[in-house]
Every structure is written in structure tokens, then in C-alpha cells.
Amino acid sequence: MTSKFLTEVQQKVVVLGDFSVGKSSLILRVSKNEFLEEQESTIGAAFINFSVNVDNKPNQIQIWDTAGQEKFRSLTPIYYRGAIGAIVVYDVSREYSFQTAKEWVEELKEKANPKLIIALCANKIDLLEEKKKLLKEKEYADENGLLIYETSAKTGKGVTEMFVDFSKNLPKDQGREIFNDDFFEEEFFNIELHNGEKKTEKTICC
Amino acid sequence: MDEIESKMTKELKLEFLKTLPSPPKKNKAEELLESESLLNVIEEEEKEIPKSEWFSRVLKKHPSVLETRERVTPLTNQISFGKLISRSKTEVQQHISNQVLLNLIMQHLETLNLGDTIKTIEKESGISYNEHYSKKSRLLTILRVGIKDIDSVWDLNLKYQGPQIENDQEDPEVEIFDNYGLGEFDDEDDEENRIPDIDIWDEPPDSDNNVCYIEENNKKILKAATLNKLIENLTNEKKSDTDFMKIFLMTCQSFTTPRKLLRKLLQRYNVPRGNLTLEKYQEKKQKIQIKVCNVLISWIKDYFSDFNESLINEINNFIENAEKTNSHIMSIKKLKGTLAKAISGQSTRFHNISYETAPLPIVPKNIFSPSLDFDLVDEEEIARQMTIIDFEIYSKIKPAELLNLAWSKPKLKHRSKNVICLIHRFNDVSNWVASSIIRIDRIKKRAKQVIRFVKIAEYLRNLNNYNSLMSVLAGLTMSAVHRLKFTKEEIPKRYNDIIESLSDLMSTKDSYKASRDALKTSNPPCIPYLGIFLTDLTFIEEGNNDFTDGLINFYKRNLIAKVIKDVQIFQQKRYNFMPVMQISKFLSNFDNFDSDVLYEKSLLLEPRKCSRSEIN
């Protein structure tokens, strides 16, 4: 176990959202970009790795995608457990998907790692009228301490920028502590983390 | 709409009257008296029979009423359908009078060549049918326009709530679509109307404009083509390519409709002579016609569910005509036989039946007692019974369910009923696991319950039931269970080790690499975790265009067919277990908590920041 933690210092980022908001398109778009290190194949690219230089240090990011499996609701904790970042995607042309995004944010805030960095991604902005400025969404992001990005997986606008900027916002010291691919380890087996969790709960209460 | 319903009932009443044995001819006055008294008889009977049973009695007594009713189902169900589709939009009522509606229906019936039914409706309703210039059903067109906006409606009104889906219970949305036969026409895209149809024999010869090949492993592969060219290739008189045919038939619903495909095949059957010599023409004609028949035979054999009544009629007409012209009697005979078999419901598909005797179920002594305690049922038997239920659903998944990401799209959902059923089953099982644990108040007993599920998970693993294994693990990982750290401390290490190794196996890491590898080495019977396939399909669908330069991207269908084949491999071999009704009853009717309730209860069991000593 220990050696695994020492050798693989990666940060897990999960991409969540309603069906057909463009999650897989975002992943496909970013995977076609240069900084992609490896990719299994276009088939089953359920997650990809890439590294971003932050302060001249490479930062390994692992993106986990739930594309195609949105309806397996009971499975989603497995996805976000152990993640240090979550990107909640919604489709600006579908009001309903923003509601779902809000539900996601609430669930993450209540049940996921309290230190989780959450970003709201307004996708398909190519379908948006110029004048609309996503005021309501920005306000919501502000209130809830979320990062917010505007992207278009179709044109590629803002996609790479989002992933790079988001990685930069992830706490650098957390990769080792939290990364694991196993959904039980974190709190189930790792006692250190129990303490960690308690601490944060305290700060929330104060 | 209410009016229509009551009118219908009145009409049915009349129909009922008519069906009673009629007395010998009498004069008009007598007749009138007679019918009056008949009415009285009925009314008297009515008094005795509760009104709710009245209708079913009519249907029972006279099947023709049932038939009429079935033909006009959309009419009788209109109200509930309307309420469901558009709660706020009532203004339409004022625009659609009975007359308009009945005319729409009659026009629809005309497109189906049901002239007698139209006459009957005219007679009974007193509304005469105004013929319409359009040869297409206007009713369908209007409904089609209606369901265009359906996305948002499903989103708002029909979010799946809680565990309701049992074994053969269907998704409410699926059911609605089935009831209204909407599934039949939704896929007749606008495509069909927009692109002018070229007769297959007028299609120009191969060029970059209609067909495109690529080289792969020294093999020439058809990459993209027009529908005509694809069908030409399918029925090519010079070469035979069964792989191509399999992929084509498996995925055809993603680029055409069964109706259009059938029309094209029949078009292809009618080979024109052109400027060929009689001899050459005969030869070419015969070869192509045999090919067309072969395609039809395979299609009917493997995908009979693609065919609705009117398509079957079309094939029957075709067979009749072909028999008259006496061409290739063998092929036509075979086609006729295949069709008859398929209609009579005989499965033409070979199912691997095991001749070994099934292992004896492990049951508690009081298995027949009504007070059978589920907690006493052996974990292995639970895993077996779960597997029987899962396989039943999994084995029913049809290729069309996996096309166009239908399971996730409100408009296409009705196509994927087994996929959706399996997903609901998955969530229900996870919920059941969590609920069963949370339900127990005392920590020691609760820990035992966790252990019980770990054992079940292990048995599921040994049975190669990865779908339920994943679902049970998800149940153990649900936030409500996951946070019970003191309960977990009560669990012996070796069970934790089992969880760990099973979780490694089902890990989403490297795109489910561990699970994929395990699947490759598993001997069927086996139930893979469906989600992996759904993710793969999502990436193929999103990463490739349906059309390239106006041609059907067949390469994409190749990729999709590969995934579908993987799904099918494991549908072939069944599990050889005996179903035990007393146990499966518990497993198909869960009494689950809502996920919010689960979490609240979990907080009560082990409150935040409490110490071990505070918990019993």
C-alpha cells in the first residue's frame, strides 16, 4: 500500500453532470490536445491522465468521467470518493440541466470530501445568445464558492483553459493523501484521514 | 376529452346491445318495444352488477368490442396521455372537436387501408369522413410534432422516483410509448422527408459521392456510403460478406428505419432489365433476388422485433406476389417458413441449454412456511437467485437498445426497456443493501449484516455476476453506509480484505481495466457490468459523426457493433439454477428507504462527532 502511495502521486478529478450535457465531448476534446500523455483508446476513455506544470512542477491529473452511466445513480459516490476536484457540467441551452448541476453540487458538499474543489462548467456556450451573461449562474457559483468556466466542446473554446486553470487551483499537497483508486480505502482503512475529516468538520462548525 | 370517453362508453353500450341475439323480424313498433325492454333488462342487470365490472363483462361477452377498443386506444387514453404530456396546455381542447379528432383517426386508418373500420366509425358516430389529400397519416404527423418537445416534459414530470421497477414491470415512460405505439414512428426521422429518395436502381455507379472505402490490415473496408450503396453491397450478386450483413442488421436502426429498409430491399428485388441480354438478365436477377431473400431471412430470424404488423403485411404481400410470378420458389418458400415461425413465436435463436441437472437450491427447512425469515436464507442461494433475475433482464437486451445512446435520451428511451430495467435493478439492489444495513439499530447486528453482504458479493464474484457485484459494492459505498466508521471497526479484517480485493476488481481505474481483464478470462455464464459497455458506446457515439460528407458513416457502426457483440456473447449461455420463488420474492420486491432517509437514519445511528461508547 505504502509504496503505491509513494509512486503514484496523482490527483483525481471527477466530471459529473446530467446526461448529454457534453461530458464525454469535453473529455474527447481535451484528449485531442497536445498535453495528453496517454490514452487507452477512444473506446472506453473513461478517464485520462495529463500533467500540467504548476510552479515548474508537473502535476499529474486524472480525469474520471461518468459518461453513459449517469443513470447508475447508486454508483456515483464511487466516482467522487477520493477525488480532490469535481467539475460539474451543465448545458446552457437546457435550463433543467442547471437544476441537476445544483443537486450535484449539494450532494458533493454534503457527502463528499469536505476539501473538494468544485467547479461549475457552463458548456455549449456556442448555443448561447451573445447578450446572456450567465448572471444567475455566476451568482450561484459565488455564493457557493465554486469556480466557474464557460466552454464549448464543439468549438473547443475554453476547454483546455478550463482543465489547466482548474488543475492550478487544486491543493498541491493533497494528491498523495487522497489519491486512491479504491473506494473504501480513504475512510475505511486509512486512519489518518479519519482525523483529517474530523478537523475539517470542526472548522465548518466554527 | 371527457366527452369523448363518455361517448365511447355509450357507443360500446350500443355495440353491446347489437351483439345480443336478435329476435325474428318484427315490425318497427315491435322492434322498438323489444329494444326498449332489452335496455330494461340490461339496466336491471346493471343494478346487480357493480358498475366497475360492467365494462369488463362487455369485453368478455363480445370480443369484437375489445377489438374495436384496441383499434382506437389512443382515443380512450387521450385524457391521461394529455395530462401527462402537457398539464398546462388545455387550450387545445377547444380546437379539437370530436369531429376533428375522429376525422384525424379515420384518416390515419385510411393510410392503414382499414376502410371497413372507417365505415363502422362513420356509422356509429354519425360523423362523416372528409377525405384528405395527404397520403401520410396526419395524426402521426401531429403527434410527431408533439413529441418533439417531449425532452423537457420528461425532464420535468417523469423523473424516475424511487425503486419501483420489478422484474417485468416496465419503466412508466417505456410503457406509455408502447401503449401508444409511438415507438413505431418516432424514428421515421425528418431525414426521410428531407432527403429526396433515389430509387436504388437509379443510384449512380460508385464514386466519391456515394461510397468511400479505407484500407485496414490489407482489407478494403467500406467506410461510408449512401443507403442505396450499403444495400447494394448487402445484396451484391458478385460477393458475399456475412460480417457486413451482421453489422448492418445489428445497427441499421441507427441510420434508417425498418420500414425504409424493407422498401429498399423490395426495390432491390425488382431488378430492371436495362440493356442486358435476356440470358444475362435472368442470371443477374436470380442472384440478386436470392440475396435479397437471404437478407430478409436473417433479418427476420435475428431481429423479429423490428417488424410491426404493417411490415409483416408488406412482406406477406411480397411473398404472395413472388409466388405468383413463380420466381426462385425455394428462397421464397424459406422466407415464408421463417416468417411463419417467427410469428408463431418459435425462437429461431439457439439458446445454450444445459443438460446437466441444476444444483439443488440451498434452502432453510421452513422454506414453505409463510413466516420464512429472509435472514436465514443462505448467502450463496441469495446470490444465485439474484443472478437468475439479472440474467433474465440482461439476456433480453436487444441491439437496438444500445444504438444512438437511446437509454439516456428521453425521446428514444422506449427503445431501451431492458437496459433501463437493468439499470433500475442495479440501483434498487444498491439501495436494498444500504437499507438492509441502516435498518438495524444495534451496531453488532449491523456489522453482521455488512458481513452478510460481503459474503453475497463474494458469491456473486464466483458466479461471474459482475453487474450485481458492482451494485452490492455500490450499496456498501453509499454515503449513508460509508460513514458508519464504528460499524466498520466491528468487521473482522478478512472481510475487509475481501471488500478490498473485490473493489480492486471492479475499480474504475484505467477504464475498468481489471474488470475487463477478468471478463476476458471468465467462462460463461457471466453477466458483465453493463455500465462499461454504455460508457464505450457513449464515447464512440460522441467521438464519431453519424454522417461523413453526407454519407452514412459505416465505420462508426463497425465500432458500435463490436461493443454490441460483446454484450451478446454473454447472453448466449444461461445459468443453470433453479428459481426458488419464496426467495426471489424477497429479491424482487424491496422495501427500500429513500436515499435522503437513508442518510438521516445513518446520522441517527452514528451521529457526527460521537464516540464509540455512545453507540449500542
From TrEMBL, chain A:
Matching InterPro entries, A to Z? P-loop_NTPase, Rab, Small_GTP-bd, Small_GTPase
Recite the UniProt keywords alphabetically.
Answer: GTP-binding, Nucleotide-binding
Superkingdom as given in the UniProt entry = Eukaryota
Q: Which Pfam families match?
A: Ras (PF00071)
Name the SUPFAM superfamilies for this protein: P-loop containing nucleoside triphosphate hydrolases (SSF52540)
**Residue ranges crossing the lipid bilayer per the database entry:** none
Q: What is the annotated signal peptide range for this record?
A: none
Record's protein name: Ras-related protein rabf2b
* Classification of source organism: Eukaryota, Metamonada, Anaeramoebidae, Anaeramoeba
Automatic annotation (TrEMBL), chain B:
Q: Which UniProt keywords apply?
A: Guanine-nucleotide releasing factor
Recorded GO CC terms: plasma membrane
- The keyword Protease belongs to this UniProt entry's keyword annotation: no
**SMART domains in alphabetical order:** RasGEF, RasGEFN
Question: Which PROSITE patterns would you find in this protein's record?
Answer: LISH, RASGEF, RASGEF_CAT, RASGEF_NTER
Q: Name one GO molecular function term.
A: guanyl-nucleotide exchange factor activity
PANTHER family assigned to the protein according to its UniProt record, in alphabetical order: GUANINE NUCLEOTIDE EXCHANGE FACTOR, RAS GUANINE NUCLEOTIDE EXCHANGE FACTOR R
Q: What is this protein called?
A: Ras guanine nucleotide exchange factor i-related
**Alphabetized SUPFAM superfamilies for the sequence:** Ras GEF (SSF48366)
Q: Which residues form the Ras-GEF domain?
A: 378-608
Q: Which InterPro entries match?
A: LisH, Ras-like_GEF, Ras-like_Gua-exchang_fac_N, Ras_G-nucl-exch_fac_CS, Ras_GEF_dom_sf, RASGEF_cat_dom, RASGEF_cat_dom_sf
Q: Which residues form the N-terminal Ras-GEF domain?
A: 218-343
GO biological process per UniProt: Ras protein signal transduction
